[in-house]
Amino acid sequence: MNLDFLQHKLDERVQKGNVRSLPKNSNLLDFVSNDYLGLSRNQELANAIHDRCRTEEVPNGGTGSRLLSGNHQWYEEAEELLKQVFQAESILLFNSGYAANQALVSAIADRGDTILYDQLAHVCLKEGAWLSKAETVAFRHNDLNDLESRLTRSKGRCFVLTETVFSMDGDMAPLVEMVELCEKYEAYLIVDEAHSTGVYGEGGSGLLAQMGLEDRVFARVYTFGKGMGVHGACVAGLQTLKNYLVNFGRPFIYTTSLPPHSVIAITESFKYLNENLVLQNQLKDKIIAFRSLWEDSLSQTSIQPIMIGDNEKARQVSLELQKSGFDVRPILSPTVKSGTERLRISLHVHNSDEEIVELARLLRFTV
Description:
CATH topology of the largest domain: Aspartate Aminotransferase, domain 2
Largest sheet: 7 strands, mixed
Order of helices and strands: HEHHEHEHEHEHEHEEHHHHEHEEEH
Number of domains: 2
Shape: globular
Strand content: 5-15%
Distance between the termini: 45 Å
Number of strands: 12
CATH architecture of the largest domain: 3-Layer(aba) Sandwich
CATH class of the largest domain: Alpha Beta
Structural class: alpha/beta
Oligomer: single chain
């Protein structure tokens, strides 16, 4: 079988210095993962999950679509809990944030509609838009003037896609102003809370609930593989939206449900966080500590981009930090725009103050 057509594209990536490969596990200090609150490594939480699974004799797998054999009792328990956490009329669980965003966006817009998405939105939001039959248009990142200009020219129903905390720059969307614009032009706002779930809000409810905006947003997407330390995601909204996705959301309909162990892990993770909200304050302290040591900080969140501007240099600086024991990875083009290559530092509650001080010192010598 001739695979030259694949190898040719891989060779192009090699020449550009941006070929991807799977990294090996390491014992380096974690400044790369999205485990912001340290819940994925929390043994007390792990014990609670395992104890429930043993006691309740859960099956090993989901066994099928939730529309067939996969709608286990643990799903409904988790969705009821999450309705309270996110202050939502309804919750629908998905296997991942990628699947949730793709299912939601691809299903709700039709031919003759318009989808406006932030140009730096995650690719799953963009792919959802591209899979729909609607016209898709990017607006400049967090640019309210550009968004309003495009809202005035939109056709049919208009859907606006953004995130609370952006994954590469760690900056936040101007949520209040975006909500007001969408209300002014009767647009439907969809917000991905992937990097704010757990980290912000009472009980880990995210930024929208913390700001009192949850009832003014058409659909909210929460993921559990980052701040919550487990796996899965959900869409929060009105009951009609849930009913619609159950009928028209293809990534929901045509996939095996999460195994009950994963669903129990979601429930127990939120229960644990609700009893240990001090973790949110501990994370804030780590962010303040790093920003006080790195004057060029561009973000007020746990995601701290260190701008390099070149693939090879970003890779070399990353390797130097890894040699010193710090797991810091480069973000290269085409993942980010050429010329904006960077290190992406993630801060966590399990990073000690001493480690943060040393990382900042090394950055001053290597960047």
